[in-house]
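As a point of orientation, let us examine one representative protein, giving the amino acid sequence and backbone structure tokens.
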Amino acid sequence: MRRRHRDQAHGPLNPTTPDAIAVTFREMAALVEIFEHAHIQISDLSDADRETIADASGSALIPLLCARVGLALTQGRHNIPLLAAEVGLLEAAVINLESYEGNEVVLCAGYELLDSFANRKTNTYPVCYVYGILAFADEAGETASGPATPSLA
């Protein structure tokens, strides 16, 4: 077994978190509505198991999105982070809504969000976790209850 010297670089303690696009509260509400509608439609017209339906509809992401909204509200922020992989869940939900007789208004809203998010892919921002909730890194400094980083003192 070989020991590492003190002057050698250490790897990151946390896995690298990808960048995210900024989403407004209104867009987040539409996103949740699309995921919920997709969940209902797929549940009604498919015999897939609950986990598969949650993945196919994007509804498994709703609790995480709601937590991000709550954190943004408590910090007085106007944008919520959305990862590129999560945009992929929206795309899957819209495609599944086409297959499972989704409401046309919801489908149109889904396509509008996809277009809007695609245009923002060039403007991504670094993210981190604050209290286990995804937030933009530049917003993680102070929270309503004090600093975001725990003090061991």
About this structure: The first helix runs from residue 25 to 45.
